[in-house]
Request: fold
Amino acid sequence: MEENTLEFIKEKMINQMRYNKQIYSLNEILSVVYTLDFSGNKKVSISGLDPFLSEFGIFLSSHEVSTLLKYIKKDQTSISVQKFSEIFKIETPQQLINKCSEVFGKLSQGNNSIPIEELWRKCNLRKHPLVTIFGRKPDYAKKKLEEGINFSAVGGNSINLKEFIELHKNMYALLPPDNQKYFLNLIPEMWGVA
Reply:
């Protein structure tokens, strides 16, 4: 029962972040978390949780905050950035791994990585989920995709399969559940290999 409640709270927080702060991916959550004042220790005090959540556009009932605190563990006095971000993490669905592997194989033509420059040449921003699902403009989608690539591609100039999957997982994780299957079908179109 409590796990379902936590899932409900997670979904509520995602929806509020999406609509109140235009946060559409896990890496955006982390970007916002890292810009908040943590007194240099990358933590926020439990007593400061309400202002912390409101910074994300999240407003929860006292019961929901209590449930969230149980997940965080009541005996702690602060929450780390890592622990907060884990609330939103998902296991990578096999269908997403398969679709990303298929698309990556076509894009990379058998190589272990794809130059970021080549990735941009193939990209069709009109098929990005921010445009097709949320009705945002392609320029906005490009900005968010650049942030996602910079977050996921640790090699800098290229992206490997693991990073490519992570990039798409970060987008997939915050989609409404009824749009997740649609997103899987968008991936080849977004990268011009449909």
